[in-house]
């Protein structure tokens, strides 16, 4: 199994130590797993420590899902994880990015009732 599959699995499971270890042993932070996704796309959105490690290692916060056009910021906003939303924005995630339905992250946060995320994104 390629290191990128291990990396995306660790990121999806919120395993910060394993993510760090795999990156140190040569996993490509923006490498694709067998499903064509990067670790930042599949990371556990509630794990800001995983997000921090990936972003610190140069993960692209603006990578879009080829099917939906959603970015990691859309996903974090949709699920309401303000800490992860803040980190992504700090690492240059584009809050004005639109998905295939022309929705921005603030729109999906509104649709899902995450007032704190909406307030933060509207303050930018």
From TrEMBL:
Q: Which domain of life is it from?
A: Eukaryota
- Reply yes or no: does the keyword Transmembrane helix apply: no
What SUPFAM superfamilies does the annotation carry? Ankyrin repeat
The UniProt GO MF terms for this protein read:
cyclin-dependent protein serine/threonine kinase inhibitor activity; protein kinase binding
The stretches annotated as ANK repeats are 68-100
Signal peptide stretch: none
Q: Name one GO cellular component term.
A: cytoplasm
Which Pfam families does the entry mention?
A: Ank_2
Q: Which GO terms describe its biological process?
A: negative regulation of cell population proliferation; regulation of G1/S transition of mitotic cell cycle
Q: Does the keyword Repeat apply?
A: yes
Which keywords accompany this UniProt record? ANK repeat, Repeat
Q: What is the name listed in the Swiss-Prot or TrEMBL entry for this protein?
A: Uncharacterized protein
Identify the species of origin.
Sphaeramia orbicularis (orbiculate cardinalfish)
Gene name, per UniProt, is: cdkn2a/b
